[in-house]
Amino acid sequence: MQQPSIQRAPPYVLEGEGDHVLSKRKLDELVRQVTGSAPTTSSSINKTNKDDVLPTSILDPDVEESILQVADDFVDNVITAACRLAKLRPNQTLDIRDVQLVLERNYGIRIPGYSLDEVRTVRKFQPAPGWQTKMQAVQAGKVMGSREP
């Protein structure tokens, strides 16, 4: 009656700054790109060297931490939902179409360069001829009923 224990794979450990998906440096670069502000440099250091750029952040530390947490939660939610979709298929691997489907359906995000295999076509409703005649009779009855005093 001994059942073999199910072994779980160890969780993925992020390498980089702490356990965030997005590093503070990359977030700062993104904010500078969006706002158009140039990075500040030290006035006493030779400005020709790329390493002289000081990483002074535009964001408050609390705001920065909140944005990093939102990014972590977003990635976690997308991956969790994509894994649930992948589990429904007989294949036990996470596929790009699982992630795409979650991003498109839940968040309205389309990834350029990647398209779903099947082209979705919108089918126009084509009622049966019997239903059409029945609806015409109902409409005619409404018109005739409204004419009587």
UniProtKB/TrEMBL annotation:
Keywords linked to the UniProt accession: Nucleus, Transcription, Transcription regulation
Pfam families (UniProt xref): TFIID_20kDa
GO cellular component terms, semicolon-separated: SAGA complex; transcription factor TFIID complex
A GO biological-process term: RNA polymerase II preinitiation complex assembly
InterPro entries found in the cross-reference section: Histone-fold, TAF12, TFIID_TAF12_dom
Molecular-function annotations in GO: DNA binding; protein heterodimerization activity; TBP-class protein binding
RNA-binding listed as a keyword: no
Primary location recorded for the protein, binned into one broad class: nucleus
Record-annotated Transcription initiation factor TFIID subunit domain positions: 23-108
Places the protein is found: Nucleus
PANTHER family: TRANSCRIPTION INITIATION FACTOR TFIID SUBUNIT 12 (PTHR12264:SF21)
Family named by the database record: Belongs to the TAF12 family.
Protein name per its UniProtKB record: Transcription initiation factor TFIID subunit 12 domain-containing protein
